[in-house]
Write a structure and sequence with these properties.
Layout: H1 26-38, E1 42-47, H2 50-55, E2 67-70, H3 75-88, E3 95-101, H4 102-107, H5 110-119, E4 123-129, H6 164-169, E5 175-179, H7 184-195, E6 200-206, H8 210-214, H9 220-229, E7 236-239, E8 242-245, H10 247-253, H11 261-266, H12 276-295
Parallel strand pairs: 1-2, 1-3, 3-4, 4-6, 5-6
Antiparallel strand pairs: 5-7, 7-8
Helix pairs in contact: 1-7
Length: about 300
C-alpha cells in the first residue's frame, strides 16, 4: 500500500462547494477529510449545530451522503435508531455516524450517548469540540476551557473543561480517539480505523473557531497545532483499553518539551483580558494532566 499523504488521499469529494461554513472554519477541514475516510456506504445524523448550517438542510445540501437532521440532544439516540433499522433490513455494511458539537455531546446529549456506549451500539460518534455553543451565540459549554470569555461568562469561565474522551473510555468501548483538523493525515487514519471496527467508537475533534475564539481565520491550522504542541489538546487513541499517543503528542510523551500554554491562549481574543494567574492555572492544569499520563505509564520517564 502507498503511504498516505495529501497526494495519495482519495480524490473523491463528499463535501461540495457551496457550503455555509464561516471563513477559516476548522470543522469544514475535519468534515472534508473525515468523509473521505468514511466513504460511500454511510448514513450521518447531525443535531442542531454549526454542522447543520455548514451542510445545509434538505432538499438543499452540499453533501453527497445521506444525513438526518435531528434535535439537539438526540444524536446518539438517532444513530442507535438508524442502526436498529438497518440491522432489521440486513444492511450491516452501512456505517452509521452521529456527528455533534461539544454542547450536544458533553452537555445535553451525554445521556443518550452514555446509554448507547453502555450497550456498545454499533456506530461511530464524532464530537467536534469548538469549546462552546458557537452556533447559538457563543455560550459556554462543559467543554469551554477555564478562563475563556463567552457570552454567558463575560468575565471568563471558572471551571476546567470536561474530559469527554476519557469519560467515553471509562465505558470500556472498543475505540476512542482524539483528532485535530490541523493534522489531516492523522485524522484520516483514525477515521479509517474507526470505520473498520464494530461497537461504539468515539472520536473527539478539537475544532478551532475564528469567530468564537477570536483570531484571524487564516491561522486556523496554526492555532490547532499550537493547542497540541502546548499540551492543551493531546493526540491519542485507545483501542480496547490500550492508549497510544500520536504525532507531536507522542514526541512529548517520549521527552520533547511542550510549548508554553501562554503563547496559545494569548493568540485568541477570548483570553484577551486574562491575568497571569489564569495563565499559570491553565499551565498547571496541563502539567498535572501530563503528570497523570506518566503515572499511568503512558510516557517515558527519567
Amino acid at each position: 500500500m502507498k503511504k498516505l499523504t495529501a497526494v495519495t488521499m482519495p480524490d473523491k469529494e463528499y463535501m461540495l462547494p457551496g457550503n455555509r461554513s464561516c471563513v477559516g472554519c476548522g470543522l469544514s477541514i475535519a468534515y472534508r477529510h473525515g468523509l473521505k475516510a468514511l466513504g460511500d456506504s454511510v448514513i450521518l445524523t447531525v443535531p442542531a449545530s454549526c454542522l447543520t448550517v455548514l451542510q445545509g438542510m434538505y432538499p438543499v445540501s452540499s453533501m453527497l451522503v445521506p444525513c438526518l437532521n435531528t434535535a439537539f440532544e438526540t444524536t446518539a439516540a438517532s444513530a442507535a435508531g438508524i442502526r436498529a433499522g438497518l440491522d432489521a433490513l440486513g444492511k450491516r455494511d452501512v456505517t452509521v455516524v452521529g456527528w455533534a458539537g461539544d454542547g450536544g455531546t458533553s452537555d445535553i446529549g451525554i445521556q443518550a450517548l452514555s446509554g448507547a456506549a453502555e450497550r456498545n451500539t454499533d456506530f461511530i460518534y464524532i464530537c467536534y469540540d469548538n469549546e462552546g455553543y458557537m452556533n447559538t451565540g457563543t455560550q459556554r459549554s462543559g467543554s469551554t476551557p477555564y478562563g475563556a470569555v463567552t457570552s454567558t461568562c463575560p468575565s471568563g469561565k471558572l471551571e476546567h473543561k470536561k474530559d469527554m474522551p476519557m469519560i467515553m473510555a471509562a465505558h470500556n468501548i472498543p475505540y476512542v480517539a482524539t483528532v485535530s483538523p490541523s493534522y489531516p493525515i492523522d485524522l484520516y487514519e483514525k477515521f479509517t480505523t474507526a470505520k473498520h471496527m464494530k461497537g461504539t467508537r468515539y472520536l473527539h475533534l478539537l475544532i478551532p473557531c475564528p469567530p468564537g475564539w477570536g483570531y484571524d481565520p487564516r491561522y486556523t491550522v496554526k492555532i490547532g497545532r499550537m493547542a497540541v504542541l502546548c499540551g492543551m489538546f493531546d493526540l491519542y487513541e485507545i483501542i480496547n483499553g490500550k492508549l497510544s499517543f500520536y504525532g507531536p503528542s507522542l514526541r512529548i510523551a517520549t521527552g520533547e518539551p511542550r510549548e508554553p500554554v501562554e503563547a496559545y491562549i494569548r493568540a485568541q481574543n477570548r483570553y484577551r483580558d486574562v491575568s497571569m494567574e489564569v495563565v499559570e492555572m491553565l499551565q498547571e492544569w496541563v502539567d498535572k494532566k501530563w503528570e497523570s499520563y506518566k503515572k499511568m505509564g503512558y510516557c517515558e520517564t527519567d
